[in-house]
C-alpha cells in the first residue's frame, strides 16, 4: 500500500512523484515503458514563462487566453502563469540545463506569443533535457518504479479510487493499492495515422477515466502541429515553431509565402490557424505537403541540432533546402476534468499534464505551455494531498461539471479470458484501422458526414475487440485508442461550431451559445456545461 501511485513518467508524473517524495510520502511510479521513455522527451519546444522584463504573467495570460479561443478558465490560466516562473527556476535548480548567455537564460519567441518568453535546452531538445533531469532525480530518491507495467482498470471501492488493476512486466495481473492515484499518462496521438507522438501515446489515462465514469471534457480539441516533417517515419519529426520564431517562412508549391495574407502574426499565428491554412492550401493545390523555408537561419546545426539531424537523416540540408511539412496530431487540449488542484470527479483520483483538462488550454494550447502545465499542476496535486483534500471542488474546469450525473461504466472487453478466439484479431491491424478512419474523418477539418461515418466505423471496429489476444499490452492499448477515439468523435459531433483546434466546414463560425465544455463519461453521451456557470444540459 502506497501513499501515492503515479501512472506515467513524463514531466507531469515525475514532477508529482518528486514533490510527493520530498514531503515524506511513499510513492510508486508505474510506466508501461522505460522510466525515461515518455512523450516529454520528444518536446522540441521549450517552457513558456514570464521570467524577465518586459514580460509579465499578465502578458503571458493574455496570449494564453487568446490562443484558447474563449474556452480557457481564467483562474486556471492565472494559476499557470503566476506559479510557472518559480517552477521553471526549481527545475533549473534540480539540474535541468537551459540555454543561457551572459549568465541569463536565453528567451525565444514561438507562435501565439507576443514576445520572447520561451526557454529551451540544447536549442531544440528541451523535453529530452527535462526528462533527463527528472529521471536522474527520481533514480536518486526513495521513489519506487515499476517499468513495463500497464494499468488496466481503476479500483473503485466505497466511492473512491483505491488503486489500479495492472498487468505486470511478467504478464501477471496484480492489484496495486494506494491512498491517492495520479493519472499522468500523456496524450492520445496514436488515435491518428500521422502524429508527432511516440507509440506509447495511446490515451491510457483518459480511457481509464472514461471507463470508470470519471468526467472528461474538451476531447474534440486535438491540436495538430502544423509543421511536422513530411517523411515516412513515425512519430513524425517535429519542426519546432521556434524555426518560424527565427524567421522561417511557410511557402506553397509556387514559392508563395501565404501566411502573411491570412493572419496578423503571419507564420507565428496560433497553431490551429497555421495547421488549417496548410491543410487548405494542400487541398487547393492537390499536394500532400507544403514547404518550410528556413534557409535564412544562420548556424542552423548549432541552434537546432535535433532538427538538423532529422533532416540530414532523410537527405535534406536546412541551410539550402526547403523542408516538406504537413500537419500531424500533436496534443490533446482536453482530458480528464480537474479542479485547480488536479482533483477529478472520483475522490482520491487526480490528473495532471496532457491527460488532464484543467482549463488552461481551452480550445487550443498556446505553444510551450504544455511542459509548464505539468510542472505547475504536478506540484499542486501534492500540495492538495498534503492538505488532506480528497474530493473535487468547483474551480477551474470543474465549474458545473460536478452537477453532471454519473453513468454506469459500459461493458468493456479489456479484461479478456484466457484462451484463443476462433476469429483472432491482430492488435496492429485494428489500431491501423482506427487511425485511418480518425485521420480521414476527424482530423484538421471535420463535417457531419465524416463524423457520422467515423462513429459508425468505430462502432464496427469495437465489436472486434473481444477477439484480441488476452493479457497483452497491445490489446489494452488498442482498446484505449478505440475508447478515446469514440469520445473524440462524439464530442466533435456535439460541437456545432468552429473554435480553436476544432474546425467544422459545415459550421465555420464560432457560436456564443457554445461557450462551454462538452463533458463525456462512460456512456459517451456529451453533456454541455456552460463556461464558469452551473448550468448543465443542451446549449440553448
Give the arrangement of secondary structure elements:
Elements: E1 2-7, H1 11-22, E2 27-31, E3 47-48, H2 57-67, H3 74-94, E4 100-101, E5 104-105, E6 107-108, E7 118-119, H4 126-139, E8 144-147, E9 150-157, E10 160-167, E11 173-183, H5 204-211, E12 216-217, E13 222-229, H6 242-245, E14 249-251, H7 271-285, E15 290-293, H8 300-303, H9 305-313, E16 323-332, E17 335-337, E18 349-351, E19 356-357, H10 370-386, H11 427-441, H12 448-462, H13 473-494, E20 516-520, E21 527-530
Parallel strand pairs: 1-2, 1-11, 2-8, 11-18, 17-19
Antiparallel strand pairs: 3-7, 4-5, 6-7, 9-10, 10-11, 12-17, 12-20, 13-16, 14-15, 15-16, 20-21
Helix pairs in contact: 1-4, 1-10, 2-3, 3-10, 5-13, 11-12, 11-13, 12-13
Concise structural overview:
The protein has 540 residues and is α+β, with helices and mostly antiparallel strands. The protein has helices at 11-22, 57-67, 74-94, 126-139, 204-211, 242-245, 271-285, 300-303, 305-313, 370-386, 427-441, 448-462, 473-494; strands at 2-7, 27-31, 47-48, 100-101, 104-105, 107-108, 118-119, 144-147, 150-157, 160-167, 173-183, 216-217, 222-229, 249-251, 290-293, 323-332, 335-337, 349-351, 356-357, 516-520, 527-530. The strands form five sheets. Strands 1, 2, 8, 9, 10, 11 and 18 form a seven-stranded mixed beta sheet that branches. A five-stranded mixed beta sheet has the order 19-17-12-20-21, covered by helices on one side. Strands 13-16-15-14 form a four-stranded antiparallel beta sheet, covered by helices on one side.
Amino acid at each position: 500500500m502506497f501513499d501515492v501511485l503515479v501512472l506515467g513518467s513524463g514531466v507531469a508524473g515525475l514532477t508529482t512523484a518528486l514533490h510527493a517524495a520530498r514531503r515524506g510520502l511513499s510513492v510508486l511510479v508505474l510506466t508501461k515503458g522505460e522510466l525515461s521513455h515518455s512523450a516529454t522527451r520528444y518536446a522540441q519546444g521549450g517552457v513558456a514563462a514570464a521570467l524577465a522584463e518586459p514580460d509579465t504573467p499578465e502578458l503571458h495570460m493574455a496570449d494564453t487566453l487568446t490562443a484558447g479561443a474563449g474556452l480557457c478558465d481564467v483562474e486556471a490560466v492565472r494559476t499557470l502563469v503566476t506559479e510557472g516562473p518559480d517552477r521553471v527556476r526549481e527545475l533549473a535548480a534540480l539540474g535541468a540545463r537551459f540555454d543561457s548567455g551572459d549568465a541569463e537564460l536565453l528567451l525565444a519567441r514561438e507562435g501565439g506569443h507576443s514576445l520572447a518568453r520561451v526557454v529551451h535546452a540544447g536549442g531544440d531538445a528541451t523535453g529530452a533535457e527535462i526528462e533527463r533531469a527528472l529521471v536522474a532525480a527520481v533514480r536518486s530518491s526513495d521513489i519506487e518504479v515499476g517499468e513495463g507495467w500497464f494499468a488496466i482498470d481503476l479500483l473503485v471501492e466505497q466511492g473512491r479510487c483505491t488503486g489500479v488493476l495492472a498487468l505486470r512486466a511478467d504478464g501477471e495481473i496484480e492489484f496495486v493499492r494506494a491512498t491517492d492515484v495520479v493519472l499522468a499518462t500523456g496524450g492520445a496521438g496514436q488515435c491518428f495515422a500521422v502524429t508527432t507522438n511516440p507509440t506509447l501515446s495511446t490515451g491510457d489515462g483518459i480511457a481509464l477515466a472514461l471507463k470508470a465514469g470519471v468526467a472528461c471534457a474538451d476531447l474534440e480539441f486535438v491540436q495538430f502541429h502544423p509543421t511536422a516533417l513530411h517523411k515516412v517515419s513515425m512519430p513524425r519529426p517535429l519542426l519546432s515553431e521556434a524555426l518560424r520564431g527565427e524567421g522561417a517562412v511557410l511557402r506553397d508549391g509556387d514559392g508563395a509565402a501565404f501566411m502573411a495574407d491570412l493572419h496578423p502574426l503571419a507564420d507565428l499565428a496560433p497553431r490551429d490557424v497555421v495547421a488549417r491554412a496548410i491543410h487548405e492550401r494542400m487541398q487547393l493545390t492537390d499536394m500532400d505537403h507544403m514547404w518550410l523555408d528556413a534557409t535564412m537561419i544562420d548556424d542552423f546545426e548549432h541552434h537546432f541540432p535535433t532538427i538538423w539531424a532529422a533532416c540530414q537523416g532523410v537527405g535534406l540540408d536546412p541551410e539550402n533546402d526547403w523542408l516538406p511539412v504537413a500537419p500531424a496530431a500533436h496534443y490533446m487540449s482536453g482530458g480528464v476534468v480537474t479542479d485547480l488542484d488536479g482533483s477529478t470527479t472520483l475522490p482520491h483520483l487526480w490528473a495532471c499534464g496532457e491527460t488532464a483538462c484543467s482549463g488552461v488550454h481551452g480550445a487550443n494550447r498556446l505553444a510551450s505551455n504544455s511542459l509548464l502545465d505539468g510542472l505547475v499542476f504536478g506540484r499542486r496535486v501534492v500540495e492538495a494531498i498534503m492538505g488532506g483534500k480528497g474530493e473535487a471542488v468547483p474551480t477551474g474546469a470543474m465549474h458545473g461539471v460536478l452537477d453532471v450525473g454519473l453513468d454506469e461504466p459500459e461493458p468493456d472487453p479489456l479484461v479478456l479470458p484466457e484462451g484463443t478466439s476462433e476469429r483472432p484479431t491482430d492488435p496492429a491491424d485494428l489500431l491501423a484501422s482506427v487511425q485511418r478512419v480518425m485521420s480521414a474523418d476527424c482530423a484538421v477539418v471535420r463535417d457531419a458526414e465524416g463524423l457520422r461515418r467515423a462513429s459508425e466505423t468505430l462502432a464496427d471496429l469495437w465489436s472486434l475487440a473481444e477477439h484480441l489476444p488476452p493479457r497483452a499490452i497491445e490489446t489494452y492499448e488498442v482498446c484505449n485508442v478505440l475508447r478515446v477515439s469514440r469520445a473524440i468523435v462524439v464530442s466533435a459531433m456535439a460541437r456545432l461550431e468552429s473554435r480553436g483546434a476544432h474546425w467544422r466546414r459545415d459550421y465555420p463560425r464560432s457560436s456564443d451559445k457554445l461557450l462551454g465544455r462538452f463533458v463525456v463519461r462512460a456512456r459517451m453521451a456529451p453533456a454541455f456545461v456552460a463556461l464558469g456557470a452551473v448550468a448543465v444540459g443542451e446549449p440553448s
